[in-house]
Amino acid sequence: MFAFLIKRIAQAVLVMVIISVLGFAVKQAVGDPLRGITGIQVKEAEREALREELGLNDPLPVQWWRFMTQAAQGNLGQSFYYKKPAMEVILSRAPATLELVFCSSIIVILFSIPIGIYAGVKPNAKLARFFMGASIVGVSIPVFLTAILLIYLFSVELGWLPSYGRGETQQLFGFWQSGLTTRDGLLHLILPSVALSSIMLPLFIRLIRAEMKEVMETEFIKFARAKGLKAWRVLIVHGFKNTLMPVITVGGVQLGIMIAFTILTETVFQWQGMGFVFIESVERADSSLMVAYMVFVGFIFVVVNTLVDVIYGLINPMVRITGRK
Amino acid sequence: MRKLWIVWAAMLALLLLAGCGEEQKKEEAAEATVEEVEVVEEAADEPVTLRLAMDADPVSLDPHVQLSGGMLQYSHIVYDPLVRWSQDMEITPRLAESWERVDELTMRFHLREGVKFHSGNEFTAEDVVWTIERLKRSPDFKGLFEPFAGAEVVDAHTVDIKTKKPYGLLLNMATYIFPMDSEFYTGTDEKGEPKDAISKTGWSFANVNESGTGPFYVESFVPGQKWVLKRFNDYWGADRIGNLEQIVLTPIKNNATRVAALLSGDVDFIMPVPPQDYQRIEDTSGVQLISMPGARIITLQLNQERREEFANPKVRQAIVHAINNPGIVQKIMNGKATVAGQNSPEGYDGHVPELTPRYDLDKAKALMEEAGYADGFTVSMIAPNNRYVNDYKIAEAAASMLAKINIDVELKTMPKAQYWNEFDEQVADIQMIGWHSDTEDSANFFEFLYMCPNKETGYGQYNSGNYCNPKVDELILASQTETDLEKRAGMLKDAERIVYNDAAFVPLHWQMLSWAGSDRLQNPGEIVNVMNFPYFADLVIE
Q1: Contact state of A162 with B201 under an 8 Å Cβ cutoff
Q2: Nearest to A164 among B202, B266, B462 (CB)
Q3: Residue B11: is its pLDDT beyond 60?
Q4: What is the mean pLDDT of residues B139-167?
Q5: Model confidence pLDDT, tens digit, residues B201-260
Q6: Shortest Cα distance, chain A CAs vs residue B148, angstroms
Q7: What are the residues facing B377 on neighbouring strands?
Q8: Measured between beta carbons, which residues in chain B are less than 8 angstroms from residue A186?
């Protein structure tokens, strides 16, 4: 296990370096940060002086190396627009994104498991067919469209739910701006969470259904039934437990997609999370903030993937054994 | 496993409960409308609040950090200028009560007495002198204040503002002088930096602290999220003010979300309004649309140095006649723009009524024939896709219109963050640019767009057509030092006529300005103006 971890960490570091290089490659393409922070009638000479001051005239490798040496000390550069360290900007927005992802995950878990199991056990029931049909629709509609439809239906037409932003937030532990502790914050969470889960939910329903169908036909299920175990016990303990493996794997892989869709959802709902800040940084060519986001998200990615691998090893000893070979 | 089952059931139950809670809330909401009247009376201690949503928030608390519409909107809320434009484009007194010319280089301003800054300090002539010095130091403003030599204190409430040469636009520029609290910004901050430092990319005292004389002060702000502005009780104009006690400003970047926030009652006032939603807002009860003709001209520049064809005035005329700008305004702008034939909108000194739009396809074809280009040619074109209202759609339409006179256009659009550098490098034969005159005066268009490009003087900085006509330069340079405004207007009109007859550029339209608000607002039509600086202090709200 120790060797396995060391290998994983070495891989992670390499991935991070590659991400930073890619970030710098993209940095040049998004445009000139100086255009975003100066008025249009400012003379080019003034801009040039500022560029020099910010070190934007240095060759890219020099800039990259400066970034890496600072990053090693935990400094990911300065956001031009927010006039603060980029890391500070991203961390202050992380709770918003994490709470959104958390709520979406809860919706996905609560609905995908029972619906998936039901549709797997009774694939021909009318209700199961309805769920399957609906899940195809859910997967096919782009998130930003779902989001706008939700806003128009629930905010504009019915006036039930707020249309944008996080509402009232509370400061927890001195740094975590939370919307989970106030009623207003929770109301603001509903629509974005539903919009974000609209992509994941159908996927997991179909996945659990397919796995369930397969498992329910195996010998040990028949045997369990023959033993006279209660029906739900057969379903959950003998059936569903054995579908978990692929579900967790896919869950880990889906994280990337989840982050991408977070950006879209946050943009439509003006949800002040990391994805929103990223899109803004691209639009404003706030390049240091953009690179910082890519590195930061890359880091989370690598950590989560490593964790998924480890958990995988815990659930299925086979993985560790193959790892040793 | 049994435990898991129980946990899961409990969570589902919670979720359902939350749903029921929702149900109850809806019923309450339905009842609330009936009881609302009583509630309003009870909640008298709630401040009268305007929830304002804009596409972006101010980038800083320091008014000199960036010269942009957004920062000027902010300046008008938190600071007060010496003078300001009224809705009908008259200069009206603010911190300056009256003014007179002393000599051709000097104007004397008599300042209002008893004006307090948010810090409690007294406003005096010192502050005006200090502010002008700081403006001349600001990277963004120093260009605008180049003609100014500085200011001198005459007495505590009289100040002389001096220019290097005679300058007819001194009063126009005084609208940019928002006096800052010199005492408040003097000294060093906790980091040992001078408090008056201007920092575009880092922390500075002025970026996070303000002391102006304006009707509202910044109580708290989270950049990009939420600003709370509170009524300033010692405001000099407190007796002539609307009834707003608080403004909560939220930036909402996404057009559809911003409109939805207004329609659902989450905000009271939005700016700007996307043209595709004008109809919807007009048709919805409980909200109102306010729009007025703007002064930002949208144009195409034809690069005469890149293309010999464009150096031929007949070809330029043909292109101007081929572009169906009334059609663009009708079809793409939903009628919410003003078709243009010149730079200066109505009301500007240089506006010439007879310079009308020139769409005439037959004439365009004839002109191409005369010029010897009946078979046409291929050109490249660039336009931004997130800078002006419907910019990329306008560019696409223009390209298809040029196809009718056999000019094939290879169009490329890009976001503004990339666009301006490409524009400066003149990477394409036709380039789109919109321009709003900072001085609310015609000369500004020519100085930036049509004077012979000159790196030394900075004239023609955005003249990517490389149009160069000594007569135009002469007129504009003369207008700068002409203080007889009648004579000056004549020069500007002449310049407009010359670029019209030369087809120096392709005029498209002036963008309209638009705002929308809930019907709770009593007089939103009175607080807006062509500069797009709403004077929120004058707003009356139910």
Answers
A1: no
A2: B266
A3: no
A4: 92
A5: 888 999 999 999 999 999 999 888 889 999 998 998 877 778 899 999 999 988 888 999
A6: 17
A7: B407
A8: 18
CB distance A155–B11 less than 8 Å? no
Using a CB-CB distance cutoff of 8 angstroms, which residues of chain A are in contact with residue B203?
Answer: 83-84
Q: Which of A29, A38, A163 sits opposite B264 (nearest CB)?
A: A163
CA distances from B458 to A44, B70, B304, B409, B452 (A): 9, 25, 19, 30, 10
Minimum-distance CB partner of B140 among A42, A148, A151: A42
When computed from its CA atoms, the radius of gyration of chain B, rounded to whole angstroms, is: 27
- What stretches of A122-238 show up as alpha helix (H) in DSSP? 126-140, 143-150, 183-216, 219-226, 231-233
- Nearest residue of B to residue A166, measured between CA atoms: B225
Nearest by CB to B202, from A43, A83, A269: name it. Answer: A83
Of A36, A46, A241, the CB nearest to B139: A46
Here the tokens at position B168 are 């007819």
Cis bond upstream, residue B179 (ω within 30):
no
- Does pLDDT of B43 surpass 60? no
Which residues of chain A lie closer than 8 angstroms to B418, CB-CB? 29-32, 285
- A164 contact residues in B (CB cutoff 8 A): 250, 252, 257-258, 260-261, 266
Q: Which strands make up the sheet holding B106-111, listed edge to edge?
A: B96-103, B106-111, B158-163, B148-155
Residues of A with Cβ-Cβ distance to B199 under 8 angstroms: 83
Question: With 50 as the cut, is the pLDDT of residue B456 above it?
Answer: yes
Three-state DSSP at B323 gives coil
Contacts of A41 in chain B (CB under 8 A): 67, 143-144, 438, 448, 461
Q: Which residue of B has its CA nearest to A33?
A: B417
* pLDDT the model gives residue A247: 80
Sign of the CA dihedral with A162 first, then A165, A168, and A173 last: positive
Structural tokens at position A228: 């006279």
Residue B139 sits at the chain A interface (C-beta within 8 Å): yes
Query: pTM for this structure?
Result: 0.84
Q: Three-state DSSP class for B380?
A: strand
Looking at the predicted structure, is the pLDDT value of residue B344 above 90?
Answer: yes
What is d(CA A276, CA A266) in angstroms, rounded to the nearest whole number?
Answer: 5
**Interatomic CA distance for residues A218 and B491, integer angstroms:** 93
Q: What is the DSSP letter of B121?
A: P
Cβ contact (<8 Å) for B417 and A81?
no
Shortest CA gap A54–chain B (Å): 9
Q: What is the pLDDT of residue A311?
A: 73
- Residue A234 CA to residue A241 CA, distance in Å, equals 10
Beta bridge partners of B148: B163
CB of B538 closer than 8 Å to CB of B527: yes
pLDDT digits (tens, 9 = 90+) for A123-153: 788 888 888 888 888 778 888 888 888 888 8
- Residue B51, strand partner residues: B248
Inter-chain residue contact A272 with B224, CB threshold 8 Å: yes
How far are the Cα atoms of A33, A78, A285, B212, B415 from residue A29, in angstroms, in the given order? 11, 19, 9, 40, 11
* Other beta carbons less than 10 A from residue A165's beta carbon: 25
- Which amino acid is present at B224? G
Torsion of CA B260, B69, B129, B211, to 10 degrees: 20
pLDDT for A5 equals 73
Measured between alpha carbons, how far is residue A43 from residues A270, B131, B143 in Å? 34, 21, 7
Determine the distance in angstroms separating the CA of A120 from the nearest CA of chain B, rounded to an integer: 18
C-alpha span between A257 and B219 (Å, rounded): 40
- Residues of A with CB below 8 A from B5's CB? 232, 236
Distances (CA, A) of B298 to A9, B95, B221, B305, B388: 55, 34, 34, 22, 8
- pLDDT for residue B358 is more than 90: yes
